[in-house]
């Protein structure tokens, strides 16, 4: 199975092309340019480099959030258009799940992905990883005040923290967890992980059609709050 995966939930936007369990190519950029100006050129470059066209794909994977409202809408609308035009299914993969899964081979059972949600909040969750690709939530994903979220974590266990939201509360994490709190140094490009998790969704028939591709929100957007 050959799929295109996209993540635009954070400034670290990325696209990846996967064939079965192999990543054939990935483009990740964190620049001042917007996703709207770089997403389609990145997809076009990746497909051309591999000698492929959209019609050669079996499906798509995209993160519906949580993340930047503007960013995730760009990624979702792009994949929604591709899925509609091709009639191929799409897999929806949480950005928090993808970020946690990316850390899963570090030998740490508990992984805490945190994304900067702005307004002094983080999108965060706590996952427990197991053998293979097994991963389950311990603290459910949501939008939290950092201090409130940290109170939900088991301070006596080793936890690996990852993502842009970590910088909002690094000192507090160090104070609470000491040596049991570790910080990931891996990049936050997630398209390959969205693709790998998306492949499992598509293989098991859990993909959706274009009409079901919608953003995942844990709070209202600024425009909605204004209304």
Structural class: alpha/beta
Specify the number of helices.
7
Q: What is the number of beta strands?
A: 10
Known CATH architecture of the largest domain: 2-Layer Sandwich
* Strands side by side in the biggest sheet: 3-2-1-4-5
Portion of residues within helices: 25-40%
Strand content: 25-35%
Q: Compute the number of structural domains.
A: 2
Radius of gyration: 17 Å
The ordered string of helix (H) and strand (E) elements is EEEHEHEHEEEHEHEHH
Categorize the overall geometry: globular
In the CATH scheme, the class of the largest domain would be: Alpha Beta
Unreliable stretches = 222-227
Q: How are the SSEs ordered, and which strands pair?
A:
Blueprint: E1 2-7, E2 13-19, E3 22-29, H1 35-49, E4 59-62, H2 69-86, E5 90-92, H3 95-102, E6 110-118, E7 121-129, E8 135-144, H4 146-150, E9 159-162, H5 170-177, E10 181-183, H6 191-203, H7 222-226
Parallel strand pairs: 1-4, 4-5, 6-9, 9-10
Antiparallel strand pairs: 1-2, 2-3, 6-7, 7-8
Helix pairs in contact: 1-2, 3-6
Kindly list the characteristics that best describe this protein.
single chain; 227 residues; alpha/beta; Nucleotidyltransferase, domain 5; 2 domains; five-stranded mixed beta sheet; 7 helices; 10 strands; 32% helix
Walk me through the structure.
Strand 2 and strand 3 (22-29) form a beta hairpin. The protein folds into two domains: 2-94 and 188-226, ATPase, nucleotide binding domain (Nucleotidyltransferase, domain 5, 2-Layer Sandwich); 104-183, ATPase, nucleotide binding domain (Nucleotidyltransferase, domain 5, 2-Layer Sandwich). Helices cover 32% and strands 28% of the residues. Strands 3-2-1-4-5 form a five-stranded mixed β-sheet, with helices on both faces. A five-stranded mixed β-sheet has the order 8-7-6-9-10, sandwiched between helices. It is an alpha/beta fold and 227 residues long. Mean pLDDT is 91; it is low at 222-227. The longest helix has 18 residues, at 69-86.
């Amino acid at each position: 199975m050959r799929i295109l995966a996209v993540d635009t939930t954070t400034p670290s936007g990325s696209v990846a092309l996967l064939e079965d369990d192999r990543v054939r190519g990935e483009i990740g950029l964190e620049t001042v340019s917007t996703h709207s100006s770089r997403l389609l050129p990145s997809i076009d470059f990746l497909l051309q480099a591999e000698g492929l066209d959209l019609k050669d794909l079996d499906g798509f994977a995209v993160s519906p959030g949580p993340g930047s409202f503007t960013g995730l809408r760009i990624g979702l609308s792009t994949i929604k258009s591709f899925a509609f035009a091709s009639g191929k299914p799409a897999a929806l993969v949480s950005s928090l799940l993808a970020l946690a899964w990316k850390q899963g081979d570090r030998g740490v059972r508990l992984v805490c992905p945190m994304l900067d949600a702005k307004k002094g909040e983080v999108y965060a969750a706590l996952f427990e990883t197991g053998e293979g690709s097994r991963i389950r939530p311990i603290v459910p994903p949501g939008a939290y005040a950092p201090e409130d979220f940290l109170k939900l974590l088991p301070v006596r266990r080793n936890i690996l923290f990852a993502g842009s939201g970590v910088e909002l509360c690094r000192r507090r994490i160090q104070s609470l967890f000491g040596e049991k709190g570790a910080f990931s140094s891996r990049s936050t490009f997630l398209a390959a992980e969205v693709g790998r998790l998306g492949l499992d969704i598509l293989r098991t028939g859990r993909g959706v059609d274009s009409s079901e591709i919608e953003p995942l929100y844990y709070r209202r957007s600024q425009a909605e709050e204004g209304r």
